[in-house]
Automatic annotation (TrEMBL):
It catalyses: N-acetyl-L-glutamate 5-semialdehyde + phosphate + NADP(+) = N-acetyl-L-glutamyl 5-phosphate + NADPH + H(+). This is N-acetyl-gamma-glutamyl-phosphate reductase. Its EC number is 1.2.1.38. The lineage of its organism: Bacteria, Pseudomonadati, Pseudomonadota, Gammaproteobacteria, Lysobacterales. Residues 7-128 form the Semialdehyde dehydrogenase NAD-binding domain. PANTHER family: N-ACETYL-GAMMA-GLUTAMYL-PHOSPHATE REDUCTASE, CHLOROPLASTIC-RELATED, N-ACETYL-GAMMA-GLUTAMYL-PHOSPHATE REDUCTASE, CHLOROPLASTIC-RELATED-RELATED. Catalyzes the NADPH-dependent reduction of N-acetyl-5-glutamyl phosphate to yield N-acetyl-L-glutamate 5-semialdehyde.
Length: 317
């Protein structure tokens, strides 16, 4: 039986996350790329820039007000923070209502948009066509805390380290190999966007201290949780196993996961569950690839849900 394919446009496709999405869309049975935009690569062949992509598509560079006329069923905004609303307004002004998935932080605090962290918010989806994709650290933090929410005696404290692809392609200290060499660079040690985001969506205060390291991709978050009563390690492990039973993109491990093992993989890993002697403090480690489960793969889960196909379509499991 012929599958009716939906068309998808990626705005900001030169970036790291845009390239990952191009690869996922290219292997999708029900999607076809309508356009991929980049001002810098305008006119160039996509296959010259995205390893693994084969096809004739070239980057284009429509202005935001020209986006509605491009005519895609699904639009992914993979732009830096603060750039999404002009695009969204252009669709509204043109009376066009495609599925819009925003990878930036711009709509993560807007209740009119569905916040798509499927393993935690799938049950809240009401057919929304405006989907805000969670932040990479915020995903790892929420997955590590959610199963213990009811036991917390104090705000969880999260120590995070990301590869420098998390800082995007706009040059900064955080993606400068010279500054990162032999270094672990702390930044935004209070009030990081993902601290606010995780706090909002978990419904409890979270404290987060991010760092960036000299490797390219993958992040690890070590979360310290003070509990209101003593627990046994096997009960903590059982809670996580139960919470994520059947989830293809969240693996619960006994031991603490290593970030080196998650680069290029589509799932998140959670493990460690080190317990203090009094049983009232547990340390949980979560890892994921910031460009995949932290961005493009999660976006693909959300797109799949929005178009009514298997949530894992095109995602290598
Ligand atoms: N990197 C990561 O690990 C994660 C990123 N995200 C979010 O996803 C989004 C994209 O991230 P990432 O791929 O890393 O970003 P990049 O910096 O790698 O890419 C940004 C893209 O936006 C375009 N762009 C840059 N500046 C502007 C501008 N002023 N106006 C219009 N287009 C612009 C660039 O193309 P061109 O300049 O050629 O037009 C490029 O295609 C960001 O909002 C980021 O916060 C979310 C989770 C994880
Ligand atoms: C290493 C690094 O800089 N990481 C980014 C997080 C990546 C990200 O994409 O976050 P948003 O989607 O919320 O912008 C940061 O800390 O801002």
């Amino acid at each position: 039986m012929a599958i009716s394919r939906k068309s998808i446009g990626i705005v900001g496709a030169r970036g790291h996350t845009g390239a990952e999405l191009i690869r996922l869309v290219a292997r999708h049975p029900a999607l076809e790329l309508a356009y991929v935009s980049s001002r810098e690569l305008d006119g160039q062949r996509v296959e010259e820039h995205v390893e693994g992509y084969r096809g004739d598509l070239r980057y284009s560079s429509p202005a935001h007000e020209e986006l509605p006329a491009q005519g895609a069923d699904i639009v992914v905004l993979a732009l830096p923070n603060g750039k999404a609303s002009v695009c969204v307004q252009a669709f509204d002004a043109a009376g066009k209502d495609p599925v819009i998935v925003d990878l930036s932080a711009d709509y993560r605090f807007d209740d009119r948009w569905y916040y798509g962290l499927p393993e935690l918010t799938r049950h809240k989806w009401r057919g929304e066509k405006r989907i805000s994709n969670p932040g990479c650290y915020a995903t790892a933090i929420q997955l590590a805390i959610a199963p213990l929410k009811d036991l917390l005696a104090a705000p969880p404290v999260c120590f995070g380290v990301s590869g420098y692809s998390g800082a995007g392609t706009t040059p900064s200290d955080k993606n400068d190999p010279e500054q990162l060499r032999d270094n672990l660079m702390p930044y935004s040690l209070t009030g990081h966007m993902h601290e606010k985001e995780a706090s909002r969506h978990l419904g409890l205060p979270v404290e987060f201290m991010p760092h960036v390291a000299a490797y390219f991709r993958g992040l690890t978050v070590t979360t310290n949780l003070y509990l209101s009563r003593a627990v046994k390690r096997e009960d903590v492990l059982a809670r996580f196993q139960q919470a994520y039973a059947g989830e293809k993109l969240v693996c619960v491990l006994d031991e603490a996961p290593w970030v080196s093992r998650i680069a290029g993989r589509h799932h998140a890993e959670i493990g460690g569950f080190a317990l203090s002697a009094d049983g009232k403090r547990v340390v949980v480690v979560s890892t994921l690839d910031n460009l995949l489960k932290g961005a493009a793969t999660q976006a693909m889960q959300n797109i799949n849900r929005a178009i009514g196909v298997d949530e894992y379509a095109s995602i290598p499991l």
